[in-house]
Amino acid sequence: MTHTYVLPLADAEAVLETVGGKGASLARLSNAGLPVPGGFHVTTAAYRQFVAENALQPRILAALEAVDVAQPSTLEAASRAIHDLFAQAHVPPDIAGAIARAYIDLPGDHPVVAVRSSATAEDLPDLSFAGQQETFLNIHGLEAVQEAVKRCWASLWTARAIGYRAQHSIDQNAVSLAVVVQMLVHAEAAGILFTANPVTGQRDQAMISAAWGLGEAVVGGLVTPDTLTMDKATGSVLARETGDKQVMTVLLESGTAEHPVPETLHRAPVLDDRATAELVRLGVQIEHLYGVPMDIEWALAEDKFAIVQARPITALPEPEAPPPTEWKLPDPKGQYLRASVVELLPDPLTPLFATLGRAAINAGTKRLGAELAGSEDGWPDETVVTINDYAYYTARFTPRQMLGLLTTMPFAMPRMMRRAETRWRDEVHPRYVETIQRWQARPLNELPATDILTGVRQLADASFDVYALYQSGIFPSANMSEVLFKGVYDRLIKRPEDPPALTYLLGFDSTPILAEKSLYDIAEWCRTRPALATYVANTPARQLAAQLKSEQAAPGVEAEDWLQWQKRFDAHLQQYGHIIYDLDFAKPVPADDPAPLLDTCKMFLSGQCASPYARQQSAAERREQATLGMLERLRGLRLRLFRRLVTWAQKSVPLREEGLADLGLGYPLLRQMLLELGRRLVQAGAIERANDIFWLIQAEAGQASAALDKGESVGSLAEAVRQRKAVWRAEKRVTPPQVLPPKSKWMGIDLNKLGPTRVGEQTGDVIRGAGTSPGRVTGTACVLHGPEDFDLMKPGDILVATITTPAWTPLFARAAAVVTDIGGQLSHGSIVAREYGIPAVLGTGVATQRIRSGQVITVDGGAGVVTLAQPGA
Fold it and tell me: CB count, 10 Å around CB of 526?
């Protein structure tokens, strides 16, 4: 068999398998006409032949057997052993001859070269392997070149390279190494060019690091280089930081060394504006060649740039944008409040929800608002608006609308409250279910794109019809009945030895509580299968979630037990997987991401939390005993008043959670439909990934759907999606004002008192909010930003979050207390905290900003105060 041991630098056969990642990249750059120093490749075939003729592979693998990534000393020992093997081995004559001929063909006598390692798993889009193998500079003479090639081969087995491959599960037996031999650039300056901003992720900017001498001082972090931020489109300098450059890498007679930079050059700019513009132009050319942002090493000699390496940037952050600083009102005379439905929308709205979803909310609210006001003109067209993409509730009505409300509301509201449960059970909920079933019956992959979008609109409309009814009937009835009962009980009925009013309202079932019981039942069943229980207990929730659809049983688990486990959990998701974390349908529901539920199941399996059945039964028994005792004791008017109010509250209050949990009933299907549309748009080249569909506005999704159905070209929306994501991330970094304009009053009422505490008032070691569930607890805070963080919370932690929705309910079983940014006395978090008997302080406005995970805090749910422990206290 004939082996090719050496290839010219730009040879067509210089691909990853033959010349490694670095070599393939240099060949590609050279063939594209970019200024790459000339040279040649010593191929992977040469490395494999060298290893084979010296019988090294079995001894390499033997040296690796004792490697433990967690023990660096084992990596060093293996590396030393393998290095000794390479040092003692000989280079086969045919390989040595091929290297000699290629070196002699380079221009000049005894040409000075750089000898660089190029591994087959290197400079890849997802794994750079930067710095894992060796480079040797200022090599001249055939014998020195041959030795440098051999040392490069050995560097495939440095301790850091062995450990890196082990951490990323790369087969140590399959890797190979090529070597690039290039003419050395006698650089006056060198550095790195990123064709995207590596700090902010902005793709329209480039960033240059530059220092005097060779590039090794920059790459090795030995010098503080100049840093320039550039506009890629114009090549102009946006920002320049001139470093105090103390050292530089220089050439010696053989090899390199670090020398002091002449004092006159310490603070002198390395590159002028003309040179930086030329370098950015080369970078843009390279980025276009690869189609991705690039990390480029460059050198400058005699006023000419040379490109010595280029690889895709790994771990590039998503682009960012400047955070908003102004909160411009849609109506300069309007008043806006972060309350009501907004409690379920803590983050900036994604574009599709802000257009399609918000339109459905406003349409549903308008319909019931018109019933409340007596006419369609009596209610604002937009109840929910967006300011910097945050949802706000409109608090301002025109004088005519206000007059109409004052005239009709006293009669319409009681009627709507009386009919709310019946309308929900007999009209709105069945209509929602019918809409879901009708679209489920149609094969999704056969639906035209425009039909998919129609189905999404209908599901959204049905969902927000539930919400509108909830807001106009169920929620007011529950809240009013609770407030009235508590007020009358505390003032006219309660004696010092009597239980608090809340005792009479706890211990009822609701969908979130039933969902928690379902997870507990699964854990208890699992406990009866020891092998399955052990596997579930010891396997990360994310891994379990990935295995839920696997037909193969987990290791050591009986196939039938595994099948039953899958069926039981799937049944749970079918019944409860719609309970939302967030009203924005861009956010996954439990049916999409069951890992947080699996984590709760693991918690129940561990026995760290009490049975929800026992907890609820205890509350129900206290409620029944207290109610019966009061009915036996009271007489006359107080008896009649107590019986009427407690009956109303006990009937209405449980419906509050029931109605809220109903909102997401169609979300699993709605999200499936949108992701199917997203997949079609990916195939059409309009967006990069299916879930980018949520970053289109409704009009764009409609136009793209129509084009798909007609077989027409769909223009790319990828850049618009990237920009919107950047803006969204910037907006998420700010805290939206609770009331706009600040200090607004509505009918003489300070609107700030209707929402969370003003952020500006929260200073010092005490954070104030609404005390919504009594009790006092000191413990460790666990700040959770969403369901992706649920596994961070341990039993006994204090849950700190922006909001909690029904899908957060299982976390209350392990929480010692609850603190939120948004919410009040009648919010979901308050209701559930009282069910669980744990203190809660809601509506602080700043909890997730001021409190850190691991910090010790004291929560006083009676006083509405959270106290931060002093450092060292």
Answer: 24
Instruction: Give dist(CA 458, CA 21) in Å, integer.
Output: 51
What is each CA distance from 774 to 32, 691, 756, in whole angstroms?
71, 42, 18
Average pLDDT rounded to a whole number, residues 355-374: 84
The answer to whether residues 606 and 791 touch, using CB atoms and an 8 Å cutoff, is no
The full set of domain ranges for the chain reads 1-184, 185-317, 502-663, 756-868
Residues 655, 417: contact at Cβ < 8 Å? no
Task: Please tell me the chain's helix, strand, coil percentages from 3-state DSSP, rounded to the nearest 5.
Answer: 50, 15, 35
Confidence bin at 659 (pLDDT 50/70/90): confident
- Give the contacts of 524 (CB within 8 A, at least 6 positions apart): 604
Q: What three-state secondary structure class fits 854? A: coil
- Token pair in block for residue 255: 């090899």
Question: Which of 140-149, 304-313, 656-665 comes out lowest in average pLDDT?
Answer: 656-665
Distance between CA atoms of 610 and 805, rounded to whole angstroms?
A: 22
Q: How many angstroms separate the CA atoms of 821 and 759, rounded?
A: 10
Element (H, E) at 642: helix 636-662
Give DSSP secondary structure letters for 70-123. T-HHHHHHHHHHHHHHHHHS---HHHHHHHHHHHHTSSSSS--EEEEEEESS-S
Superfamily of domain 756-868: Phosphohistidine domain (3.50.30.10)
CA dihedral 618, 624, 628, 631 (to 10 degrees): 120
Cα(759)–Cα(801) distance, rounded to whole angstroms? 15
DSSP-assigned states of every residue in 9-67: TT-TT-SHHHHHHHHHHHHHHHHTT-----EEEE-HHHHHHHHHHTT-HHHHHHHHTT-
Q: Are 293 and 312 in contact (CB under 8 A)?
A: yes
Pair 69, 75: CB distance under 8 Å: yes
Token couple for 74: 């084992």
DSSP 738-800: SEESTT-EETTEEGGGGSSPPGGG--TTEEE-EEEE--EEEEEEEEE-SGGGGGG--TTEEEE
Distance, in Å, from the CA atom of 212 to the CA atom of 416, rounded to the nearest integer, reads 78
Place of tokens 């660096």: 72
CATH topology of domain 185-317: D-amino Acid Aminotransferase; Chain A, domain 1 (3.30.470)
What is d(CA 475, CA 343) in angstroms, rounded to the nearest whole number?
Answer: 14
Distance from C-alpha of 85 to C-alpha of 154, rounded to nearest angstrom: 9
Instruction: Identify the pLDDT of residue 65.
Output: 86
Listed range (395-399, 528-532, 714-718, 755-759) with the worst mean pLDDT: 755-759
pLDDT in tens, 481-509: 988 999 999 999 999 999 999 899 999 98
| Cα distance between residue 610 and residue 618, in whole Å | 12
pTM over 0.90: no
The reported pLDDT for the residue numbered 290 is 93
Peptide bond into 323 cis (omega under 30): no
How is residue 616 written in tokens?
């609820």
Q: Collapsing DSSP states into helix, strand and coil, what is residue 411?
A: helix
Query: The CATH number of 1-184 is which of 3.40.47.10, 3.30.1490.20, 3.30.565.10, 1.10.3720.10?
Result: 3.30.1490.20
Do 756-868 and 1-184 have the same topology in CATH? no
CB-based contact 498:577 (threshold 8 Å): no
Task: Identify the sign of the CA torsion 603, 579, 518, 824.
Answer: positive
Token output for 646: 């407690």
Region for residue 54 given its phi and psi (left: phi exceeds 0; alpha: psi -120 to 50; beta: otherwise): alpha
Query: And the tokens for 731?
Result: 């907006």
**If pLDDT is split at 50, 70 and 90, which confidence band does 549 have?**
confident
